[in-house]
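Following up on my earlier thread - several people asked me to post the actual chain instead of describing it. Fair enough. Here it is, all 395 residues.
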Amino acid sequence: MSNQPEINLGIVGHVDHGKTTLTEQLTGKWTDTHSEELKRGITIRLGYANFSIYKTKEDYTTKKSKDAKLLRTISIVDAPGHETLMATMLSGAAIMDGALLLIAANEECPKPQTEEHLMALDIIGIRSIIIVQNKIDLVTKEQALKNYQQIKEFVKGTVAENSPVIPISAQHGININLLLEAIEEHIKTPKRDLNKNPLFFVARSFDVNKPGHNINDLVGGVLGGAVKQGKFEIGNEVEISPGLKVGNKYNKIKSKIIGLMSGNEKIDEAKSGGSIALLTDLDPSIIKSDSLTGNVVSLIDQSPEVFYDLKLEIELLKKVIGIEKNSVVEPLKKNESIVLNVNSAVTIGELVDITKKSATVRLRIPVCSNYGDRVAVSRKVGNRWRLIGVGTIIK
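Reply from S.P.:
Thanks for posting it. Predicted structure:
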């Protein structure tokens, strides 16, 4: 049986509340592997790792053993909590089926990015959320209860109002079994139609060849991300949209899938679900350093539309989330620049037309998307891009 992950589970929350530590506790893999991340001690890019949930007679565990039954394998998307990296977190949310919202028990709740990340989950339409009250080893029982009350107050009226709150210590592995049980109970694998035209959202793209490689041993570029619908097989001829910029236009790239990986395991087909790597026959130099992040992979001539302008129905939030003082969201203005997260793509656009019902945005980088897709809208507030609303792509 292939251990291909069935779902993508996001781990989100304020910077330093323990997201990467929890990822390591579940998967055995530290996701801050980028050199700059190790230096600064924060997650910059999306981190990916898989883990499996097993059930023994008396408990839930991530450890394989003779008497443990494999329930399912899950991909973790460790999203950055730093406020300057909100766009990366939103791109990650595009491929999540559910999320763990981490809140540190030894700090006041909510912190700015806790609030911003919860709003982002709501905007992108993620309904399966578990609240993880972390660092309970650092507080007294009274402090933990006070923090729990703050959490309940904070989530009232939000998408996470009825989400379970699981107290844990990621550092010491306390109550991880209860968290696994909650994941099994509250974050179900959605029903997926494998007969749909397959689509893959690119979240990372890289060249795995090391400098000095023998020219005969070079392998093609690798695309990391998630199959959003349908399934891909080795040998599929695919196109990548919007593709690469040539002059002032983007050209779709044609390629062939020469391999599929789930974690370190080779697989023959990639079904919608967890994080997957597509091995292509593309020149690695055009793929390296995440240059194709935000693209969509489809079978030839089956990609969604590529938009250079987007017409959106936009619903603005009442206040700017993620900053200490309450700040009202001002109406959108013509010629204003805004940032849009469309699936796993991030693009800047200029508002060229605004009516009561809609706004038209001219994009600096085109996006590949469908009518009806939800889009997160951010604007510059002070010197940061802040989440201010949600849009739907309309005709």
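The two ends are 44 Å apart (CA to CA). That should answer part of your original question.
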